Amino acid sequence: MSAQPDQEAGFGIGTDADQQETREWMDALSAVIDKEGPERAHFLLEQLLEHARQSSIDMPFSANTGYVNTIEADQEAHCPGNIAIEKRLRAYMRWNAMAMVVRANRLNPADGGDLGGHIGSFASVASMFGAGFNHFWHAASEKHGGDLLYIQGHSSPGIYARAYLEGRLTEEQLDSFRQEVDGKGLSSYPHPKLMPEFWQFPTVSMGLGPLMAIYQARFLKYLHARGIADTANRKVWVFCGDGEMDEPESLGAIGLAARENLDNLVFVINCNLQRLDGPVRGNGKIVQELESEFRGSGWNVIKLLWGNGWDTLLARDKTGKLKQLMMETLDGDYQAMKANDGAFVRKNFFGRYPETLKLVEHMTDEEIFELRRGGHEPAKVYAAFHAANEHKDQPTVLLVKTVKGYGMGKAGEGKNTVHQTKKLSDEDIKYIRDRFNIPIPDSQLADIPYYKPADDTPEMQYLHERRKALGGYLPKRLPKAEESFTVPSLDTFKAVLEPTAEGREISTTQAYVRFLTQLLRDQALGPRVVPILVDEARTFGMEGLFRQIGIYNPKGQLYTPVDRDQVMYYKEDKAGQILQEGINEAGGMASWIAAATSYSTNNRIMIPFYVYYSMFGFQRIGDLAWAAGDMQARGFLLGGTSGRTTLNGEGLQHEDGHSHILAGTIPNCVSYDPTFAHEVGVIMHHGLKRMVERQENVFYYLTLLNENYAMPGLQPGTEEQIIKGMYLCKQAPTLAADAPTVQLLGSGTILRESFFAQELLEKDWGVAASIWSCPSFNELARDGQDAERWNLLHPTDTPRTSFVAEQLGKTTGPVIASTDYMKNYADQIRSFIPAGRTYKVLGTDGFGRSDFRSKLREHFEINRHYIVVAALKALSEEGKVPAAKVAEAIAKYGINADKVNPLYA
């Protein structure tokens, strides 16, 4: 719902036919407000609106208010701080942030390449950070769980500048900004991976911060409702740019925040009206647009647009022309006002109407230019923050108008180029020094020294006193939880490890559900399990958990579910354990991240299990998965109905043949494609040991199948090999001593085709084939690459052997790998196959489609017949069988040698 700037006060309702009557109504309302208060006035307005609706009066809804501050000057909470000292501290931080970026970009390495960095963003948000750090944001302490801060990433230099004054960072570290390889530098943006005791949340992949923060705030409520942590007084503060709100993720979950009454959530949108290249809404008004979006979704909206100087002008605006002018002026024009000077503003803004020009006739051009936007007025920022902090039953958004590059002067203030401005001339630096009264003499300016007052100065004492009053310094991250758990023994999950009964078949998805059910029974760990669903519980056979542990809903269940008379009815509960996100993979992943990082953000170890269609995982929310890696998430992602040919009827959009390739791109994601129930059990148990018991910073991705078959059970002694990614699951048949041999590798459902291929190779061609289950070609590849790297760097030491070479080293014959994934997945281990051995890979490259599984596996050339042909071809290339045998097999199995390559089909 876009605002229309040419409508006075946002209400386009036509010409006033009777101004006197209108004034009488307005006077009557004013009298109610004065005598009975705003609550009574609000009630009367609601009654009038309802009466109008019942009379069928068409009333177009407007979620907009005038282009003025939401909080009237006489209603502003008083700031208890020392405004003068805070101003000095902000000035030092502005200077040091600028100095750090400019110094970094005056380095000229021989190979070229600037380090980059940003000055303009922090310059626009400094007053807001000052208010938060000095008065509102609690660190974790015995009395408070700590507030969570999603810092606008491009303003990170300002956060470093504050930490430097606090003594948390050294001058050497500031001089190592964006120089991290040697281990002492500061990361470009908030990155927990790179600064694990400092940053909590990565925010510079635009849009992810707002989305993750909403689910983080909801997760705090979840923990409190379930009695796991007292989070009642904690808040999540989220800083965003107005340009960032164009990202679909930024606004995509604001309805959830309102629906669940997340009054622990505050968005602060820095409305400096500029994106990286130019204005956010040059032809419109981004503040009005965002106001309507958030208010229409049920948020409490507070606009802070104008500083103190404007209050006086508005009070003298008896004609309403100034308010009209404020509404009419486009954002592109507002930007121009701050990119020029006072004379320009007088002529092009106030000069549009005689009434507004008269308002400033007593002011000099300099005084006009010093009329500040609201975000640069510390007392007003405090009042807005105070109102947001105290508001109940709704999330709050602060729309704060600022100037990008505030204080940078001609170097960038309000200019389209300011985002890229990182190199300043000596004249620019002198201007900033003078504007903010930094006590550095001209003789030192060329060095751009950092400035830090002595520890005993009033400024430094105030800085530390304020943070002490709020529990400590921020941002700060907890690398490990202070609590600990012992994971139950593997035998606890014997229902998953044992062979299925005669005639019984299950899927690996069912194995996962059995494992989860058993874990939920554990007295210590059970309450820490967080099952996360995206509306597919029945697909995955998890509907039994609905009644068992309930679905979290802060309102409970106010209705009677249609299936209430059934055992597994849909049960919502205020203390429910399941997070049911609906058809919402991004929301499911954001919830998973909140739970998977709870050990750090809440000092509570949680164990999230997020199950979804595997095709709608990394492909759909890959950026969130990468952020999870950065945040050192711990938990299980479960890609159900996996593989290109297993979810056979759903077709192209649903059939996953590449999620493991995507998973492999995230260094701390440990991924597996298990075939059997016992593999699921061993892998998940090992994951619990690593993530919960040892608190290692990894997360697990398992693909699960919806295909039922008999499960052979765990072979004792193979547990470690399963974890490493490869074990011999069926020996070759005993044939003549001179019979050719091959090694068949596979994972997931297609490993079972190797069992059938083994029979065909023996029966039809006299070839002895051994079968290897490879639950993780990704882990095998990482192990092999690690061995290769070590050998490269230690040429005189005894070479290390990859696990693949170790396993296959005692065998003979070619090696054939087949999976339900693209060939690249299994091809990763090619260089680790023992020397002189032929390696053939079959995979599902190409778009999926609907058909029976047998037809799809024939189409993608991964079925038993193709495995046999690949084995014979490899044997022929090694001179063990004649090539004619390969042609004979192709004919025997009815393979169309001239069909289209499935990659292009």
Total DSSP helices: 36
Question: Total number of β-strand segments?
Answer: 18
Record the strand order, biggest sheet: 9-6-10-11-13-12
The percentage helix is 40-55%
Please state roughly what percent of the residues sit in beta strands, choosing from under 5%, 5-15%, 15-25%, 25-35%, 35-45% or over 45%: 5-15%
What composes the largest sheet?
Answer: 6 strands, parallel
Termini distance? 44 Å
Gyration radius, rounded: 33 Å
Which structural category do the helix and sheet elements fall into?
alpha/beta
Average pLDDT value? Answer: 94
Poorly predicted regions are 1-12
Summarize the structure in words:
With 905 residues, this protein is α/β, with parallel strands linked by helices. The chain is built from 36 helices and 18 strands.
List the helices and strands and how they pair.
Blueprint: H1 19-36, H2 38-54, H3 83-104, H4 120-136, E1 148-150, H5 156-166, H6 171-174, H7 208-225, E2 236-241, H8 248-252, H9 254-259, E3 265-271, H10 286-297, E4 300-304, H11 308-315, H12 321-328, H13 331-339, H14 342-348, H15 354-359, H16 365-369, H17 378-390, E5 396-401, H18 426-435, H19 442-445, H20 458-469, H21 494-497, H22 508-520, E6 529-533, H23 544-549, E7 551-552, E8 572-573, E9 579-580, H24 585-596, H25 598-601, E10 607-613, H26 618-630, E11 636-640, H27 659-663, E12 669-672, H28 677-693, E13 699-703, H29 719-724, E14 727-730, E15 741-746, H30 751-765, E16 768-773, H31 777-793, H32 803-808, E17 815-818, H33 823-827, E18 839-842, H34 853-859, H35 864-877, H36 883-892
Parallel strand pairs: 1-2, 2-3, 3-5, 4-5, 6-9, 6-10, 7-8, 10-11, 11-13, 12-13, 15-16, 15-17, 17-18
Antiparallel strand pairs: 14-16
Helix pairs in contact: 1-2, 3-4, 3-5, 3-20, 4-17, 7-24, 22-28, 24-26, 30-35, 35-36
